[in-house]
Amino acid sequence: MSNRPIYLDCHATTPVDERVLVAMLPYFIEKFGNPASINHVYGWEAEAAVKQTREILAAAINATPEEIVFTSGATEANNLAVKGIAEAYFQKGQHIITVATEHKAVLDPCEYLKSLGFEITILPVQQDGLIDLNELATACRPETILVSVMTANNEIGVLQPLADIGQICRDRNIIFHTDAAQAIGKIPLDVQAMNIDLMSLTAHKVYGPKGIGALYVRRRNPRVQLAPQQHGGGHERGMRSGTLYTPQIVGFGKAVELALAEQAAETARLTQLRESLWLQLSQLEGIHLNGHPTQRLAGNLNISVAGVDGAALSLGLQPVMAVSSGSACSSAVTAPSYVLTALGNSEQLAYASVRFGIGRFNTAEEIDIVAKCAIATIQSLRKQKSLV
Ligand SMILES: *Cc1c(COP(=O)(O)O)cnc(C)c1O
């Protein structure tokens, strides 16, 4: 284990916290009942556990437990939100607004709806990765049924101005969906104060298990209609059929509970680690920070590096750290990510990029090792390049 690279890819996934695993274990063998079984204790205890997670998730975002619909993750929640709204409201209008830097789990369902005749407006972002609120307001039309803007970006970590977006949508009677896969447990979220109608969540980015997520669906002021995308036994008030995955749901609840309890302290700690990493890396020439400098997730640092090949940098870092890297290079093997492309700085697109995703189990010592290794690798690659 100790010889494995330092894990700094927490936007891709996170390990399950041991406290989460301990909470899950009884629900595999002992308390294995189907939460839908209403005639015996096996069903009751499973249902009680599911209810508890519903309450934890609802409290985390200031919703009610009845507004939580369990899904297999944020991909499914996004699909259910986007396609479910399109199908339920197509008679009101067939126009949807989203953003160029959204996750593919929002962009691809929108692309699919386009093939069915819906009109999709994809808003650009500014150089800092944030949307222009005036542009959003201008894009809204009487036939707009949905605005989908993510809470926190999975590549550059930027936090979109949710409350302002929510107000723009509410004023125009447009449903507002946000993909909060990267945000749940990490920043304060309030669906009432922010006028959010639908919110996608997932457990595995916040030290919970993979394969479980949820969609918050507003039930009052206004009541949101949603066409189910999976039909079956009518679970989750008909919005998502299928036997609930009790152990994963228990883990999801425990993960969010822990993240909320530790949020303030952890945000401060991660901010310090990120600042330390940036301070060291930015000593080098030709290092550019991608995304808004402060309006971002505490654990995210995304940089572009001038004068090195993306694939070579990735290869050089691999033995020491597990990061997401690559992006453009002269060899044209890897294309720049569409998120970085959307930032519109054409010069940086020629650079290599690295996304550091710092998390709960990273230490200050690890960050120093990573900084030193990254600096040495970049310097060595630049030297080699200047020799050819
Ligand atoms: C990880 C992620 C998803 C996909 O979530 P899954 O639970 O893995 O399906 C969607 N959106 C964002 C922003 C993500 O970071």
Q: What keywords describe this structure?
A:
Aspartate Aminotransferase, domain 1; 388 residues; globular; Aspartate Aminotransferase, domain 2; alpha/beta; seven-stranded mixed β-sheet; 2 domains; binds pyridoxal-5'-phosphate
Could you describe the 3D structure shown?
By secondary structure, this protein is of the alpha/beta class. Helix content is 39%, strand content 14%. The protein has 2 domains: 6-14 and 263-387, Aspartate Aminotransferase, domain 1 (Alpha-Beta Complex), CATH 3.90.1150; 18-256, Type I PLP-dependent aspartate aminotransferase-like (Major domain) (Aspartate Aminotransferase, domain 2, 3-Layer(aba) Sandwich), CATH 3.40.640.10. The chain contains 11 helices and 13 strands. The strands form 3 sheets. It has a 7-stranded mixed beta sheet, sandwiched between helices. Helix 7 links the parallel strand 5 (144-148) and strand 6 (175-179). Helix 1 (18-24) packs antiparallel against helix 8 (246-281). The two termini are 38 Å apart. Bound molecules: pyridoxal-5'-phosphate (PLP).
Oligomeric state:
single chain
Span between N and C termini? 38 Å
| CATH overall fold name of the largest domain | Aspartate Aminotransferase, domain 2
Mean pLDDT: 95
CATH superfamily of the largest domain: Type I PLP-dependent aspartate aminotransferase-like (Major domain)
The number of E-state strands comes to 13
**Radius of gyration in whole Å, from Cα?**
22 Å
